[in-house]
């Protein structure tokens, strides 16, 4: 199965702030701009970041959130949520708005949001 055949892989705009930080750091430190990432690369990048933790002071955990079935492209290959230029600019400027997929929450929460006219 090819990357473009996947219906939905993780998107940068859907990530939590710490996940976005991980993506930006991997792109910056390792020049990783491909739309996929191998398990070997994840392990290697993580080890290098752990080794640099004392120097840079940056503490990023292991990206288990990337290694999920919904994000799998091939065996040991996962989608990598490469941001667009505007998403990078927004992230670096701090002008970031989280996008929440309400389908992952209970129908009761969705009803409350609709009933009170809340913005998701």
What does it look like?
The protein has four helices and three strands, in the order αβαββαα. It has 120 residues and is mainly α. It has one domain. It has a three-stranded antiparallel sheet with strand order 1-3-2. The mean pLDDT is 83.
Concise structural overview:
The chain has 120 residues and is mainly alpha-helical. Helix content is 42%, strand content 8%. The longest helix has 18 residues.
Helix and strand topology:
Elements: H1 17-30, E1 36-38, H2 39-56, E2 72-74, E3 77-79, H3 85-93, H4 107-115
Antiparallel strand pairs: 1-3, 2-3
Spans of at least 5 consecutive residues whose pLDDT stays below 50 are none
In sequence order, what are the helices and strands, one letter per element? Answer: HEHEEHH
Tell me the major beta sheet: 3 strands, antiparallel
- Total tally of structural domains: 1
What would the principal axes of the Cα set say about the shape? globular
Structural class: mainly alpha
Distance between the termini: 33 Å
Strand content: 5-15%
With helices defined by DSSP (H or I, 4 residues minimum), what is the helix count? Answer: 4
Mean pLDDT metric: 83
Order of strands, main sheet, comes to 1-3-2
The count of DSSP E runs of length 2 or more, i.e. the number of strands, is: 3
**For the CA atoms, what is the radius of gyration?**
16 Å
**Helical proportion, percent range:** 40-55%
């Amino acid at each position: 199965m090819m990357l473009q055949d996947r219906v939905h892989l993780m998107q940068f705009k859907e990530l939590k702030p710490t996940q976005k930080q991980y993506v930006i750091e991997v792109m910056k430190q390792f020049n990783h701009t491909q739309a996929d990432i191998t398990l070997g690369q994840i392990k290697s990048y993580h080890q290098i970041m752990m080794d640099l933790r004392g120097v840079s002071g940056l503490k990023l955990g292991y990206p288990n959130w990337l290694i999920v079935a919904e994000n799998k492209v091939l065996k040991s290959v996962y989608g990598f949520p490469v941001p667009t230029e505007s998403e990078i600019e927004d992230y670096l400027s701090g002008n970031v708005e989280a996008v929440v997929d309400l389908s992952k929450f209970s129908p009761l929460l969705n009803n409350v949001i609709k009933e009170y006219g809340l913005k998701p």
